[in-house]
Amino acid sequence: MEVSEYIKVFAPATVANVCCGFDVLGFALEQPGDEVWVRRKDAPGITISAIRGISGLSQNPEENVVGVVAQKMLAELQVSFGLDMQLHKGMPVGSGLGSSAASSAAAAYAVNELLGKPFTTEELVPFAMEGERLASGSAHADNVAPSLLGGFVLVRSYDPLDVVPLGVPVELYCSVVHPQVELKTSLARSILKKDIPLQKGIRQWGNLAALMAGLLKADYALIGRSLHDEIFEPERSFLIPLFKQAKQAALDAGALGAGISGSGPSIFALSATEQVAFDVRTAIEQVYLSSGIDLHAYVSQVPEQGARVIQQPTLHA
Amino acid sequence: MEVSEYIKVFAPATVANVCCGFDVLGFALEQPGDEVWVRRKDAPGITISAIRGISGLSQNPEENVVGVVAQKMLAELQVSFGLDMQLHKGMPVGSGLGSSAASSAAAAYAVNELLGKPFTTEELVPFAMEGERLASGSAHADNVAPSLLGGFVLVRSYDPLDVVPLGVPVELYCSVVHPQVELKTSLARSILKKDIPLQKGIRQWGNLAALMAGLLKADYALIGRSLHDEIFEPERSFLIPLFKQAKQAALDAGALGAGISGSGPSIFALSATEQVAFDVRTAIEQVYLSSGIDLHAYVSQVPEQGARVIQQPTLHA
Questions:
Q1: What is residue B139's three-state secondary structure?
Q2: A164 touches chain B (CB under 8 A)
Q3: How many angstroms separate the CA atoms of A112 and A119, rounded?
Q4: Measured between CB atoms, does A223 come within 8 Å of chain B?
Q5: What is the model's pLDDT at position B312?
Q6: Which tens digit of pLDDT belongs to each residue from B91-129?
Q7: CATH no. of B6-166
Q8: What is the CATH number assigned to the segment(s) A173-301?
């Protein structure tokens, strides 16, 4: 292995539960995202020497996703030296934008780069999923996979894990608005019913299949007709203040479709052009600001690349 | 309208409920199929002067799908003259291969050709669906749409009707075996539960989304990994004698995947090459013949074209 001394990696936020693609489809954003800095140290074990951009996260490597992910990789590779890590959070937790996934993906990508790429980027997904297991109790892949791989990524199966990157088959722009309200993912998940009506299921997978066709055939109209969620959005959206108004404002401003990002409270909308995406962001912002709810908002092309090195000073054989 | 005197049309059998694509995905075969012959007559109204290849179907145009479809089209176009029709059945009813759909599609295509193509082929789908309404009580589109349009066709929505032809993105061969056992579609449908477990639903739409990606990206391995049905096949397959053995024989012979065609009892298997598709057909045949169950079997490329004119003698302005 050609091991570097020091590396900095950025991994982006992601939108999962893309309307009809509940639990199976996610996509990457350009921003926001997290940075993980990793330095090789001779002493074995992992230390987290700094966490910036957020307060309240543990620097105990067994209690922080970046430490857990790195430890899994070192154990798998039977590496004798240790790592010192820094986590620079560029996004809030609990936003529905895959915050723990961005940290986990950045950690996996950074450790892999530092160690001379013993794994392909796709092979990093299971390691990053261990961060998700720590953060949420469930090792889901629908945020870490697009954060690592970029573009739209499908999680076909967990047993065995089967992650399908679609690449970026069509130019799409995403507006994300994160209203500053608290929403527990566990609450959002707990209201899900264990059964769904067959007829709604059929409509949901018909929409998802059509969304895939729209993405892969670059058919914007079909993408727009397919971005629906008849099952989860009606159950969950009442947890998000002004969701219906915000979604309608997005559609009125020209978005192809809109929905809840992850488990919320962030709202995402997809548009065919960057200009429309900015208009959509403004329209959603106005819904919240006129009601006195503060927010963070982003516009991002759905990027070809996910996690990436942002600085790699020297190589060391 | 440039109206012909006489036209003959063939429309193919189809496979619907393609594993994970229950109720939304179907594809066309090259054979078997039905022919509809239509002749213009001056007297208004529709007559069915002959039905060949099958016994027991009504020649009353209000009780036969070809008459019902043609009548809807004449009424829509306010045509003053009448039509005499012949139906040549090239496939059995109750096979799970879209028999009534092939007749309905052939009728719609033939009448449209005779009348100088007032409708696009996609616009014929709702007319052909009226034949399905007569035959099964439900105007479903997942057989008539691929029979008319060829290739794989997705039915995204019924309200409004949204039919998405995928074209033929990948070269695929289908083996179909129709064991000579009776199975009522109504029975196969009646055992469906009204609710499905959420976790099975998620796996089902993950597989369907991946199947779409496999078809559109020509990824045979992904198609193979995605051709599963965890919801309906376990409930329905016990109605089909030797189904499990037949499916296993197909997979052992190299098929990418296999399942119940429509509501059965026919079994379909998809393969990457024609040679494998013949091997698969032989393997399934042996399962049934060794148990003394007679069958009909077909091998067919999934064709680019669906319904088509097979003879068009003279044009008449």
A1: coil
A2: yes
A3: 7
A4: no
A5: 57
A6: 989 899 999 999 999 999 999 999 999 999 999 999 999
A7: 3.30.230.10
A8: 3.30.70.890
